[in-house]
Design goal:
heterodimer; A: about 750 residues; alpha/beta; Rossmann fold; FAD/NAD(P)-binding domain; 4 domains; 5-stranded parallel β-sheet; 22 helices; B: mainly alpha; 2 domains; about 65% helix
Chain lengths: ~750, ~425
């Protein structure tokens, strides 16, 4: 049964002055036989209200609004169950084309054709409803300050929490500090640790179930449906004993950090009184004062050497962010009550960000604390038992030495995280070593095993995911997905790293992070329970459906999904977990059999849009270029181009895609077969500092270019007819030039010979 | 063999060339043992901000007087905050600083290098003075009475014992009887000259020790400079330094403490005028230019008397300006210490008592004019005797530092246009 389609054409914003509206209406009513087509003055405010009234009054089921950019409509403006597609006649046509030109009119009409075709093909989305009820409780892994705060925050928001701690005590590093760096103005006095109060609060909270001496030995399932098994670490009961089994909705990974080993050039472990900052903290917590490890005597002078384990390209090249504060604090321990004690702090840069600068100043004021930028060149033992630290390029001299009782190295942080993908790769390589088909294959696999052996037994979460048992590790081993744009997000939906496992941070940062991740987890269980997607397509109700009868078990979708949504059966058939899905459509782009589709986004829908427009023949001198623009940056950039009234080449037809990774090669071959002279793909930046909202999408589009070239070759067309560009929204000015340059390429190779075939 | 030799020779040459371009190895490390007591002393003496320094170098960059090589006061700030007493108290650069406080007002951390250097100079004076207790007394207000008392006793004793001393040394009233000297009955001329000659020699001997040390240290710093700049002739160095002092050239480069340029100029020239007149009067009996009897006190219209009166007025005006500036603009003038106040006060006291004596002399008020004269001499003696121990020592140390700076080219001032504002 044909659904009733309605078309609204907005005449405001100067649209009527630039286009032949009547001709446009005829496209809808005559060419597409749309039963309803009406012009409106505006698509905002009262205009929008009248559109909604008309939709209801005329029982329209599918609606196209040609007016302002889709991004300009309020959320949830339209009634449920009705398909509404909006396209930007204003931004993408009228504002960036000369008025009343033949080409401008053609552009407007083509967009109308494309969008009417789109709604014809679209089906109403029905949110995914799991057969089993969605669990809304939250698992927090790690009982340090981040884990405790995440648990408390979630519980306060009304969610049940399971808090798992590997050791036999809660509190983590917070409980292992003698005193804390000041956290509030005037940042002058060290503070008492609030760990005991927090631990008591967590343990007394009826919503929080605390497990100590336990680890997650298995996590199966997906957001809302995670089945967790906890086993004992061997404290109190036999190791490996199952402690509990339960279901949770989302997970906060707050596994924290470990102290790094100082760099080799420092004599840690070789000289007795050279210790790490964490060791000094432990000792002072035990003894209440600073004593020398070698003879237990009271220490009168300490040299602190900063960046002992950080900011060294050969070691840990990042800044661990708290070591400067820690050394300043520990210098205060030494000076407390000892008028003649001396603390030297040798640093390359002192980093006390934000208001901590006040604390730095307070420490600096102390006449017995000596700070200098420097390059520590040597630490040796003096015959009298003390240590001599030599440093070059210091403030007080080019080469100085000081005699001290003790040397403290500022060890850095490394995340307590495992690299899930590496563990999986190690497992795969092991299998190949045993069952590899050729000698060469087995040899390469053996090398791989050697290379990855450090990941052996590092599992923390033990996820039963096809792509590995833990979050993928990124730069420096932190499992964050994109710490600048999307804090707390990871590449596994429903699992949110927070605190120092995500990036080095102080106690305040960890508490904030914990609250943020708790909110993310809550958001996840709530949206999952409604069948909606989480970030970045928050609220999207569509989800991919797999027509598995035609699946060839090529595993492209299971391997390429950046979020590990798909598990596999033994044969390699994908086993979807819809609540893990972020709805990017990368599986859709990957599938050579075209078996993956969303109700509102599929190979067929886009292909039909592509084919819906008339292609002028070779002699009209009107080329056509298909531009597939990523919805996240490139497509909104086109809005900005319109707002700035920059001219766009009128021969380009733009179709937004969820992600360049969702572009199926079929669309490109369909376009060239239909007579388009070229196809241009514009997506987010990829590489180490990627901006792709779905992590690997735009990069995948590039690597899939090989398939595109094969297709073009078969059709005896030039490779140059397909281009891929990376663009961020701030670079909107580049967009017209990208199109113009591409047109020159098309001019060079001439019109597509398939036109009119 | 010969083939090898020809092959290796250029290689050695090359290695030699490379070695020359390689940075020289760092010098032998200096052992630093911070002197916490010294840090506290500096902090008490006006350098309380010294620990706020973060070594950004704004002070050295902004200082119009600092040299490009090893510029001050940044390094002094580092040494001060590390309690490097020995290094600081042998650092001659502290004497090239005028405490104009361009650096202090521009310091982004609120440290006041100008004041810290002033505190270091105060410690410098005390450190190099013998005996040190006099320096300690000179820097504490409660000892002022003691110092003045000592001088009063000394002068009183000299007057009381003038006859036995005269007999012992063979001086008699007759020696000066050819000069009309209205105070000679109270204070014979020979006694006056002898008393102040002894004070002057003592002061100079004391201060000379410090000057020698200062000179050595500056020479050492200057010779570390790469490339070593040729020395300047000593005579012409002195010439340049004196010219610079007379014109207040370096003072004029400071932008923050502009009023001090004028007040110091006035005090300086007033003092110079009075010093010249004093020397003229002392040397009068032996001066071949003066034919006939030398009548003292001089006639009011005598050019020397006019110069002295003018000098006195200018000096008082300069001191008043300084007091006003110090009270109103402490941001620019720096922390005001007892040593600053006491020097201005003492100068004022000397000149004012001089004027009072002069006035009483004109009205012939007896015996008040004698009493006033005595008081005047006590103040003048105090000024002279404590010169090596008080801020007044800068008159010697700074002059020496400036001559030395000229000789070893540590003056290359930045052009005022280059000073960041």
């Amino acid at each position: 049964m044909e659904e009733k389609i309605g078309v609204f054409i907005c005449t405001g914003y100067g649209i009527a002055e630039a286009l032949d509206i009547e001709a446009l209406c005829k496209v809808a009513t005559e060419e597409f036989k749309a039963p309803f087509c009406q012009t409106v003055d505006s698509c905002e405010g009262q205009g929008l209200e009248s559109i909604i009234e008309d939709i209801k009054a005329n029982h329209l089921e599918k609606v196209v609004i040609a007016g302002i950019s889709a991004r300009r409509y309020p959320d949830a403006a339209f009634p449920e169950g009705i398909i509404v597609e909006k396209f930007a006649l204003r931004e993408h046509v009228v504002w960036c084309q000369p008025p009343n030109e033949e080409d401008t009119q053609m552009l407007a009409e083509d967009y109308l054709r494309m969008y009417i075709t789109k709604v014809q093909k679209m089906k109403v989305t029905v949110a995914f409803q799991s057969e089993e009820p969605i669990d809304k409780s939250i698992l927090v892994v790690g009982g340090g300050i981040t884990g405790i705060t995440a648990a408390l925050e979630s519980a306060r928001a009304g969610y049940d929490v399971r808090l798992v701690e590997k050791s036999d005590k809660l509190g983590g590093w917070l409980a292992r500090q003698f005193k804390l760096v000041p956290t509030k103005p005037p940042y002058r006095e060290l503070e008492k640790s609030d760990a005991p109060e927090l631990i008591a609060e967590v343990e007394g909270n009826p919503r929080i179930q605390v497990y100590k001496s336990a680890v997650t030995s298995s996590i199966k399932g997906a957001p809302g449906l995670f089945d967790v098994t906890l086993t004992s670490t061997g404290n109190g009961r036999p190791a490996g004993d199952i402690v509990d089994k339960f279901r949770v909705g989302a997970i906060v990974q707050a596994t924290g950090w470990q102290a790094t080993e100082p760099r080799d050039t420092l004599p840690w472990g070789r000289l007795d009184d050279v210790v790490r900052n964490v060791d000094l903290e432990e000792s002072i917590l035990k003894h209440g004062r600073v004593i020398r490890p070698s003879d237990g005597k009271e220490v009168k002078s300490i040299a602190f050497i900063q960046c002992g384990g950080s900011r060294d390209k050969k070691h840990h090249s990042y800044c661990s962010s708290i070591c400067c504060l820690t050394s300043l604090k520990q210098a205060m321990y030494l000076r407390d009550g000892a008028e003649d004690a001396k603390a030297y702090i040798f640093y390359e840069f002192i980093r006390t960000p934000g208001q901590y600068e006040d604390f730095y100043r307070r420490v600096q004021e102390d006449p017995g604390i000596f700070l200098t930028r420097s390059n520590v060149t040597n630490v040796v033992r003096d015959p009298d038992g003390s240590l001599i630290v030599t440093a070059a390029d210091t403030m007080p001299g080019r080469n100085i030495e000081v005699k001290v009782d003790m040397v403290v190295l500022a060890a850095g942080m490394k995340p307590t995280a495992a690299d899930g993908e590496a563990i999986r790769a190690l497992k795969d390589a092991r299998v190949t070593v045993e069952k590899g088909e050729s000698e060469a294959q087995r040899k390469t696999a053996a090398e791989k095993v050697e290379e990855l052996s450090q990941h052996e037994g590092t599992e923390i979460l033990n996820l039963e995911y096809r792509q590995g048992p833990d979050l993928p590790a990124l730069e420096y081993g932190f499992p964050d997905s994109h710490f600048i744009c999307f804090p707390y997000e990871s590449r596994r939906t429903g699992i949110y790293p927070a605190g120092c496992v995500r990036q080095p941070m102080d106690g305040i940062g960890s508490r904030e992070d914990a609250a943020g991740a708790a909110l993310k987890a809550i958001q996840c269980v709530e949206m999952t329970s409604r069948g909606e997607a989480v970030h970045p397509r928050s609220g999207d109700k569509s989800y991919p459906e797999f027509f598995l009868q035609r699946c060839t078990q090529c595993k492209r979708c299971t391997e390429e999904c950046p979020f590990g949504v798909l598990n596999e059966d033994e044969k390699g058939t994908p086993l979807p977990n819809p609540t893990r899905c972020r709805r990017c459509g990368i599986c859709l782009g990957a599938c050579p059999e075209r078996i993956v589709s969303f109700r509102d986004y599929s190979v067929d829908i886009i292909a039909s849009m592509i084919k819906s427009i008339p292609i002028p023949d070779e002699f009209d001198e009107k080329p056509r270029v298909l531009a597939l623009l990523c919805e996240n940056d490139a497509f909104p950039a086109l809005d900005v181009v319109g707002q700035h009234r920059l001219n766009i080449n009128p021969f380009v037809r733009v179709i937004p895609v969820r992600c360049l990774g969702s572009v199926n090669v079929v669309w490109i071959s369909e376009a060239v077969s239909a007579g388009y002279d070229g196809v241009i793909l514009i997506g987010c930046k990829y590489g180490d500092d990627y901006q792709c909202h779905f992590i690997t999408g735009s990069e995948l589009a590039d690597t899939r270019g090989e398939n595109v070239r094969d297709k073009l070759q078969k059709m005896a067309l030039e490779n140059e007819r397909v281009e891929l560009h990376q663009l961020e929204i701030a670079e909107y000015e580049r967009l017209p030039k990208i199109f113009d340059d591409f047109m020159k390429v098309i001019d060079k190779y001439g019109m597509n010979p398939f036109k009119g075939m | 063999m010969s083939v090898e030799a020809t092959e290796t020779a250029p290689l050695q040459e090359m290695q030699g060339a490379i070695a020359e371009t390689v940075e020289p190895p760092p010098p032998e490390p200096i052992r630093i043992e911070p002197d916490l007591a010294f840090i506290r002393t500096l902090m008490k003496a006006g350098g309380d901000s010294l620990k706020q320094c973060m070594q950004c170098g704004t002070c050295s960059a902004t200082c119009a007087l600092s040299s490009d090589h090893e510029p001050f006061p940044r390094k002094e700030m580092a040494w001060a905050s590390w309690g490097m007493k020995d290094v600081l108290l042998n650092d001659s650069d502290v004497w090239l600083c005028y405490q104009c406080n361009d650096c202090s007002t521009r310091c982004p951390r609120g440290a006041r290098p100008g004041d810290v250097l002033a505190a270091v100079r105060q410690e410098w004076i005390g450190h190099h003075a013998v005996p040190r207790f006099l320096a300690r007394w000179a820097h504490q207000p409660q000892s002022a009475i003691l110092l003045l008392g000592i001088m009063t006793v000394l002068l009183g004793a000299a007057l009381y014992l003038k006859d036995p001393i005269g007999r012992l040394l063979g001086f008699s009233e007759e020696m000066s009887s050819n000069i009309v000297f209205s105070y000679s009955s109270m204070m014979p001329r020979w006694l006056l000259n002898l008393f102040f000659l002894v004070l002057g020699v003592l002061a100079v001997l004391t201060v000379l020790r410090g000057v020698v040390r200062l000179w050595k240290s500056m020479k050492k710093t200057a010779l570390q400079q790469e490339p070593v700049t040729p020395r300047k002739n000593l005579i012409s160095s002195i010439g340049s330094a004196i010219k610079s002092i007379l014109l207040h050239e370096r003072f004029s480069l400071c932008t923050e403490a502009r009023p001090r340029y004028w007040s110091h100029m006035m005090v300086f020239f007033g003092f110079l005028a009075l010093t010249l007149v004093t020397l003229w009067v002392i040397t009068a009996p032996y001066n071949p230019l003066i034919g006939g009897p030398f009548i003292y006190p001089l006639n009011f219209w005598n050019p020397w008397k006019l110069l002295a009166n003018a000098g006195g007025v200018v000096l008082i005006a300069g001191c008043v300006l300084m007091l006003k500036d110090r009270m109103k603009n402490s941001e620019q003038t720096g922390v005001n210490n007892y040593s600053d106040w006491s020097l201005i006060g003492l100068l004022l006291a000397v000149v004012l008592t001089g004027f009072i004596t002069e006035a009483l002399h004109f009205v012939r008020l007896e015996p008040h004019r004698h009493l006033a004269y005595f008081v005047h001499l006590v103040f003048a003696g105090t000024l002279l005797l404590y010169m090596p121990y008080s801020k007044f020592a800068h008159i010697v140390y700074r002059t020496a530092a400036m001559i030395c700076a000229e000789r070893y080219n540590r003056t290359n001032e930045k052009q005022p246009g280059q000073i960041p504002t």
